[in-house]
Amino acid sequence: MLDLELLRDVKGNVLAGADIFYTEEVVNDASQTSELLKSIANEYDLFIVGREKGRKSVFTKGLEEWSEFEELGLVGDLLASKDLHCKASVLVVQQQQQMI
Question: C-alpha dihedral over 6, 68, 41, 29, to 10 degrees?
């Protein structure tokens, strides 16, 4: 729920004329995910991406083989890859596991 609330605030700032650009893109597999990231890698100054340990997705399946920095997650790793030549900063967020 917090993600949706945060996105609502970001979208509100976009509408208010803040220097924030928010977009959603639809991809169907890892190849499209990779191509999309390559196409936008140098259009922005900052990427905020989520990371969830152990979660498998059709959108990133196969990218694990190329991963260099597991702690960044698959999307963060791809953006930080030398092959991509991305000059933007990448902020990787992960929800804290519940402590018992």
Answer: -80
**pLDDT tens track for 35-71:** 999 999 999 888 888 887 766 777 777 777 778 888 8
Residues 61/32, Cβ–Cβ less than 8 Å: no
Backbone angles phi, psi at 12, to 5 degrees: -65, -40
Q: CA angle at residue 43 from 63 to 4, to 5 degrees?
A: 70
Rounded CA separation 51/88 (Å): 18
3-state SS assignment for residue 50? strand
Tell me which amino acid residue 33 is: T
Which uninterrupted H or E stretch holds 39? helix 30-40
User: Domain extents for the chain?
Assistant: 27-93
